[in-house]
Prior knowledge:
Chain A has one domain: TIM Barrel. Chain A has nine helices and 16 strands. Chain A has helices spanning 30-38, 80-92, 106-119, 144-157, 173-182, 221-234, 248-257, 267-271, 275-289; strands at residues 8-10, 13-15, 19-21, 44-45, 62-65, 68-71, 97-101, 123-127, 162-166, 187-190, 194-197, 199-200, 205-206, 212-216, 239-242, 259-264. Chain C has 268 residues and is of the alpha/beta class. Chain C has two domains: 7-91, Translation factors (Elongation Factor Tu (Ef-tu), domain 3), CATH 2.40.30; 103-265, Nucleotide-binding domain of ferredoxin-NADP reductase (FNR) module (Rossmann fold), CATH 3.40.50.80. Chain C has helices at residues 29-32, 72-78, 111-124, 144-150, 169-180, 191-204, 242-247; strands spanning 7-18, 21-27, 39-44, 48-59, 62-68, 85-92, 103-108, 130-135, 153-158, 165-166, 184-188, 207-211, 227-228, 231-232, 239-241, 255-257, 263-265. The longest helix of chain C has 14 residues, at 111-124. The radius of gyration of chain C is 17 Å and the shape is globular. The complex binds flavin-adenine dinucleotide (2 copies), flavin mononucleotide (FMN) (2 copies) and FE2/S2 (inorganic) cluster (2 copies). One flavin mononucleotide sits between chains B (22-25, 47-48, 69, 71, 73, 75, 100, 127, 130, 165, 192-193, 216-217, 220, 242-245, 264-267) and C (218, 222-223).
Amino acid sequence: MSQLSLAVELAGLGLRNPTMNAAGVLGMSSYQLKRLYESGAGAVVTKSLGRQPRNGHPNPTIVFVEGGVINSMGLPNPSAEYFRDEIKRLKAENIPVVASFFAASIEDFTYLASILTDAGADALEINCSCPNVGREKCMLEADRESLEKVTKAVREASSLPVFVKLTPNVANIVEGAKIAEENGADGITAVNTLKALAVDIDLRKPILSNIIGGLSGPALKPVALRCVWELFENIEIPIIGCGGVSYWRDAVEFLLCGASAIQIGTALMDHGVELFKEVNEGIRRYLEENGFRGVKDIVGLAHET
Amino acid sequence: MSQLSLAVELAGLGLRNPTMNAAGVLGMSSYQLKRLYESGAGAVVTKSLGRQPRNGHPNPTIVFVEGGVINSMGLPNPSAEYFRDEIKRLKAENIPVVASFFAASIEDFTYLASILTDAGADALEINCSCPNVGREKCMLEADRESLEKVTKAVREASSLPVFVKLTPNVANIVEGAKIAEENGADGITAVNTLKALAVDIDLRKPILSNIIGGLSGPALKPVALRCVWELFENIEIPIIGCGGVSYWRDAVEFLLCGASAIQIGTALMDHGVELFKEVNEGIRRYLEENGFRGVKDIVGLAHET
Amino acid sequence: MRREVHRVVKVEEVKQEAKDVFTLYFKDNFCSSASPGQFIMVWIPGVDEIPMSLSTINQKGVSSITVRSVGEATRILCETKVGEKIGVRGPFGNGFTLKGSKPVLVGGGTGVPALYPLASKMLISGIKPSFILGARNAEQLLFKDRLQEILDDLIISTDDGSLGFKGYASECLGRLILEKKCDSIYTCGPEQMIVSIFKEAERRNIFVQASLERYVKCAVGLCGSCGIGPFRVCKDGPVFDSISLRAVMNELGFKKMDPSGRLIPVEK
Amino acid sequence: MRREVHRVVKVEEVKQEAKDVFTLYFKDNFCSSASPGQFIMVWIPGVDEIPMSLSTINQKGVSSITVRSVGEATRILCETKVGEKIGVRGPFGNGFTLKGSKPVLVGGGTGVPALYPLASKMLISGIKPSFILGARNAEQLLFKDRLQEILDDLIISTDDGSLGFKGYASECLGRLILEKKCDSIYTCGPEQMIVSIFKEAERRNIFVQASLERYVKCAVGLCGSCGIGPFRVCKDGPVFDSISLRAVMNELGFKKMDPSGRLIPVEK
Ligand SMILES: Cc1cc2nc3c(=O)[nH]c(=O)nc-3n(C[C@H](O)[C@H](O)[C@H](O)COP(=O)(O)OP(=O)(O)OC[C@H]3O[C@@H](n4cnc5c(N)ncnc54)[C@H](O)[C@@H]3O)c2cc1C
Ligand SMILES: Cc1cc2nc3c(=O)[nH]c(=O)nc-3n(C[C@H](O)[C@H](O)[C@H](O)COP(=O)(O)OP(=O)(O)OC[C@H]3O[C@@H](n4cnc5c(N)ncnc54)[C@H](O)[C@@H]3O)c2cc1C
Ligand SMILES: Cc1cc2nc3c(=O)[nH]c(=O)nc-3n(C[C@H](O)[C@H](O)[C@H](O)COP(=O)(O)O)c2cc1C
Ligand SMILES: Cc1cc2nc3c(=O)[nH]c(=O)nc-3n(C[C@H](O)[C@H](O)[C@H](O)COP(=O)(O)O)c2cc1C
Ligand code: FES
Ligand code: FES
């Protein structure tokens, strides 16, 4: 039986479907990422990798709130160098890999971009939007100048498609996206988490060891959709939607608002890795029932009046 | 039976308890506000009033999402001038009134501040953070310069305590708060809604007529708590916490993070105006059970290590 | 899912009731378990979202609204074809409470369809209501056949006397109360009609539940735009009983909030 | 509320089990309906949040954890006084599945308490398990009295022979299997012990469920820090059966993720 194809082309990358895991979610090893791919993801995204191994913040690093979770993992990662072999292992099985990374200096961004490119990643995702580490640790996009420099440096250091992942914690997300676009980014991932906090009234203490963390999950979705909407109206490069996708309907919402692909993080907690298959089946059914011929047909469709 | 008093002093204002309605929620008339006060609110906050009557955006102006609602009322209001009599009616019954207002020019801010002061309001709340009207309609705090000018102008035009209500849609909420503080604000209300969007996959259209609206309710709470936390660490003037308070526990969370009073909006939908009483009773029980003597004792307590 | 969340439903059937009045049938789980007197918000994308009482509830899962074309949104709704989609959320508001053993229902204009589910529910509960069906003239009478089918005691009243009693529904009501010893009144229709009926009822000391209209935006009791006195039509109403009606007599029939929140005169 | 949300509970009772091992009792609804083998995250404010198996489940609503002091967080937990408060969330993970009619449970060190609720549950289900209780020496044996009270067949095994069988629990297991024709093995304890037991079981073709430990951060299967092969100890485990164990033999007993995600050697 011939089924409608979910294949998408994303900044030159051919993917069997438009779903990926969100950076930092089950991306600690090639084994974990391979499992996500086998469960149906169109591509897999590594944990954000840095120059040095990092243990991240002490526990508690996650707390549950209504509508989502707040995490302050603090970018634990085994280092990009260590992860090279993991990427090679994934590439040996032809799994499309997006390498997420962060750094504290332009030199490190350049260095990491080149070793991840050499390792065989299919695309790079610059994480300059993690709310969980101080400014010294990772350049913030809110700072226009750093964003410009970082994008340019990575662009020059690698021939791969470069995605820039943005934070929603800004007054105007379009500004940062435009800077990235002008400096050679091939796509924008929108969004990272919202800066948030949870406090316990019995112990009268913030729950996270780092006090402040990032809110993800359903609570983030309406904000993420708004960001994707605004970006689609203002930039030309493709958008990867991220934030609270928990059901196939959410994925379709992101596509209609202008995302060319979507990432799933927090929802894997409740729905398991099987979620990729469910989301893809849901998108397929939606396209078929509404007479569309492919994912591309509905990208940004809600903008037409 | 003698009960622990919930009375608070807020920027010179003596209130019987630390709860208020959030601006724009059931503040369209003195009747509505009186009902809130009778239901237990410590003070009442008017709908944000402007120079001219405004109908606001066409419907749909509200949409329900997981963890909250997105509204784009568009600041409908009968005008400050019209509302003078409403304020007088409330003052005739000795109800503490916070007059919320917005304007498109410094002249209008000055004018509105003075007529609302004359009408007898107990405090002013500058709404320069509504996500639902364009820049031309209302000065955005993200713009440091306007915030400075507006605060200064209102400060000069009125002898009342002036609260500045901030938006969470900024990279750094402390920046705006400091500007307000330096220019004479007596308190900060934190926060207004998060810019958000909802789209319908069957009709493939954004649901709000204005496309983008503001997210309130439980989904906003962790972000609001984070803002209050950051403000408490960085400013001296009192903070009025707002965003997702739905149970007494939430109110206590805001107090522990540094709010001296709290406002309730969206939760009145599910819990009714009876919520004020429940929240106050909950706070009282909490204070008693934990051996505190008043609300003041726990303001900011989670910051102590 | 909560009933406040939007759903998109397909219009399954359209029935013309009068020159400018149409009933749209659709299927929706929340609506089919609504209480008589509750309303929904109907979204016409790109146009408006407006409140509409449910005129059918729970008959084989089918619900309906009955719309009079009075402006842009209602005109477009009235032109809806079978198979087209509309957005709905709700049901909202309190609905009617069954009280009394000899109730009389008084409907005028598009207030009539909102009373139809109430009449059905009364019958199921073993109560046989009287029903005064009012309109300007015979052509504008709504739901006449449907009501006749289920009711023993349907009284028609037209302002011009083109059918049934000649005069206002409230006058007709006065007689009926005496005749039938009615012990409770349910009414929905033009505001001035409601005022007359309420006054009539007050004089005779009979308990009233009346469904009112104000400008509805949020429909969930937050924005305050539907205010009448201390009440919100969308949440405390749309059905108000005698006690509440007494509390708003300084506004009822005189003043209403316009979309900006200012009180403006009610149409006479 | 979801079980993932933090609760703060009062420590109701503290029992010293060995020089450096204490059991803390508390009340919590989610914990008292946990499955044997599940764990919770215990928050010690200002210090850490660490995984702990439940060592009592559902006895009059009381739950417990049994903690060996090995570092800062466990030391502070072991010093907790009655009436003090700790934070908990969970229970998390899969827990054990009842299989076989002649099971044997093999516990070593602080792995023993995690098997206690399993033994209780088996008894309730009419299954009489054998239990090998292992430790370095007699002083380190945990839950000996409690287990003796409920079990007919408790075999004690110490490395130094200071009580019961002299040698490793896995050797003891070899004999028991032959003797009793055991048809399933449940084990919790030091990783090298688990490896030996699993090998023993594989040789004899007996199905195993083993509870493993890795560095747990989120406890809900998101962060990947507790990875072992393609699995997450917090979500796919902590209990793994023979099929899964076979799939991770290149890591089990050899390598584990450190908090940065790098594979480092497992203690021998
Ligand atoms: C609880 C309730 C139940 C109702 N039930 C029915 C019904 O069953 N059948 C029916 O035909 N009509 C009903 N109405 C009235 C109906 O909502 C209006 O006729 C409709 O909104 C007009 O919209 P329009 O765009 O066609 O007209 P417009 O030209 O926009 O306005 C015409 C009139 O309708 C009023 N109106 C417009 N928008 C709203 C709104 N959002 N809320 C309230 N009034 C509005 C205006 O104030 C004006 O008086 C009900 C109203 C309420 C409040
Ligand atoms: C599912 C599971 C159940 C457990 N059940 C029990 C139990 O019932 N009783 C008991 O005494 N111990 C149990 N442990 C082990 C216990 O979690 C560690 O001993 C404890 O975390 C040590 O913390 P510390 O700060 O005292 O020591 P540290 O000095 O911080 O570390 C000592 C050792 O504990 C490990 N450790 C530290 N933090 C963690 C963590 N977050 N997750 C996993 N390991 C960690 C370190 O890697 C190191 O090997 C369990 C572990 C897991 C994974
Ligand atoms: C446990 C956890 C770890 C994360 N780690 C990273 C990371 O390393 N790099 C990054 O760019 N984003 C990270 N994120 C953010 C996610 O990639 C994603 O942007 C966010 O969670 C919103 O998507 P969701 O709502 O689907 O989870 C992390 C999120 C979670 C929950
Ligand atoms: C229907 C509605 C109308 C609002 N109108 C205003 C307004 O006029 N002025 C204002 O400053 N904030 C307005 N807000 C924002 C609230 O005052 C408040 O900041 C926000 O809703 C967060 O609080 P909550 O989560 O308790 O609702 C409005 C919110 C809602 C839901
Ligand atoms: S329409 Fe908003 S309160 Fe009734
Ligand atoms: S601790 Fe297991 S995935 Fe995070």
